[in-house]
Amino acid sequence: MEVRRITITIAGRNYPLNVPAAEEETLRKVGKQIDNMIKDFEANFDVKDKQDALAMCSLKLGTNAEVANLNNEKNINASNQRLVQINQWLEELEK
Fold this sequence. Notes:
Blueprint: E1 3-10, E2 13-20, H1 24-44, H2 50-94
Antiparallel strand pairs: 1-2
Helix pairs in contact: 1-2
């Protein structure tokens, strides 16, 4: 597995990372999203402290991740219910 050394800039600070080559694009994209989110918080909510902007960014990203997780669980449960129903129909056809 090829590892690359990259630098991600967030809130004006550079963070050197060693990452698998396959993850480089994703990490760059996420780093840019975080940096843009911080800039938006600073511009729209009169946030002057980088730590406050980072905390708000963390809350938003955590909330988004939790909502996505709940949605995935609902989709999995709905799919499981459909599969049970299909299985019951198939069993009835075998009779």
